[in-house]
Specification:
By secondary structure, the protein is of the alpha+beta class. The protein contains 3 helices and 15 strands. Strands 1-2-3-8-7-6 form a 6-stranded antiparallel barrel. Strands 10-11-12-15-14-13 form a 6-stranded antiparallel β-barrel. Strand 11 and strand 12 form a beta hairpin. The longest helix has 17 residues. The chain is globular. The relative contact order is 0.16.
Length: 280
């Protein structure tokens, strides 16, 4: 679909086109001063102006969304992107593609604003602060298990401590890793994440095999969360940054999957409560 500047005025038409093909929009809890987690969810229906979208899911767990929670929404068509403000009206069950599906009813957007290409997550009224993600080649996937176990134990100890103290992350069992770089978390999905890496560091992603990601949700989650992952796909955006889709890999540590899902869900619940504290 070719880009047309007039789409900012005809955003409603673009939404209907997305809905007709089951295309995605992006949503994030609006919480100033906190790192924003973004989900891509399918736009299923437009009902009296309200948007009916999939409920966000992380690692097979529905992410709790409370009524009246303010959200930032985004529409991306080609290299163009628009953002808008909305809110959760309700969680509903709808019959979609032959089965009952949990969905969110979002309030009708009244206006959208085009994002500048160099500030893809910022408009005049709001800006999303994307979490940083450390990304390293991981020669031996099972070598990350001690770090995952140590992180889980440290966060559990912090939750039970009166002062919430957490051991220095440098004391945890960091595995031997290869080349690495810092990335920004673009969005989360049901079983993975998409990150963006600057062109000068994109070659880190060229290897085949496992990677160690460290998701930074501090200070709400006191330690960065290590996650083993594998590159599923990559693409180059208009600024020559590389967007990499990672599939999380818990095959070496099955029970760790539910722990990560719990951390992310609690973080989002904390955002909706108006704070940034997420219990471990």
């Amino acid at each position: 679909m070719p880009a047309r500047r007039s789409r900012t005025e005809n955003w409603s038409e673009s939404l209907w086109q997305l809905c007709a093909r089951g295309g995605p929009i992006e949503i994030s809890v609006l919480a100033q001063g906190a790192k924003s987690l973004v989900w891509r969810v399918r736009l299923l229906q437009i009902d009296d102006g309200d948007l009916i979208v999939e409920q966000p899911v992380t690692l097979r767990r529905a992410v709790p969304m409370q009524a009246a929670t303010p959200l930032v929404g985004a529409i991306a068509i080609g290299q163009n992107r628009w953002m808008f403000l909305t809110s959760v009206r309700a969680t509903e069950t709808r019959f979609v593609r032959g089965r009952d599906t949990e969905v969110l009813r979002l309030s009708e957007p009244h206006a959208v604003e085009r994002c500048q290409r160099r500030s893809f997550y910022r408009i005049s009224t709001v800006a999303l602060d994307l979490p940083s993600v450390g990304c390293w080649a991981l020669p031996e996937p099972d070598a990350a298990v001690p770090l995952e176990m140590a992180t889980r134990a440290a966060l559990a100890d912090a939750a039970g401590a009166s002062n919430g103290a957490v051991p220095d992350p440098g004391e945890l069992a960091m595995p031997t890793v290869g080349r690495g770089t810092d990335a920004a978390l673009l969005n989360l999905g049901g079983g993975g994440a998409c990150v963006t890496v600057s062109p000068e560091h994109a070659s880190v992603l060229d290897r085949v095999g496992a990677f160690l990601l460290k998701l930074d949700l501090t200070p709400s989650v006191p330690l960065a969360l290590p996650i083993t992952a594998r590159v599923a796909h990559t693409k180059v955006d208009s600024s020559q940054n590389v967007q990499a889709g990672f599939a999380f890999d818990f095959s070496m540590h099955r029970e760790y999957e539910s722990f990560i899902a719990e951390q992310i869900c609690r973080y989002v619940v904390g955002l909706q409560a108006g704070g940034t504290k997420a219990a471990a």
